[in-house]
Design goal:
With 65 residues, the protein is an alpha/beta fold. It has 2 helices and 3 strands.
Length: 65
Amino acid sequence: MTIGSLFTGIGGFDLGFEQAGLGPVLWQVEIDPVCRRVLKKHFPGCAVFEDISPCVTKTTDRIRG
């Protein structure tokens, strides 16, 4: 399973999901620029977005927030 994260904050839940083996976090959405800087530092391989629009596509199976 792969994970996309909405309203991510600084990624506490995302880190827990990865440590629990639930899958890698592929993208995160966070509006706060300070939080986005933290996310880019702690999740270097993850795409970080300010707006949800690029993340919601016809290929998205489920979004839960």
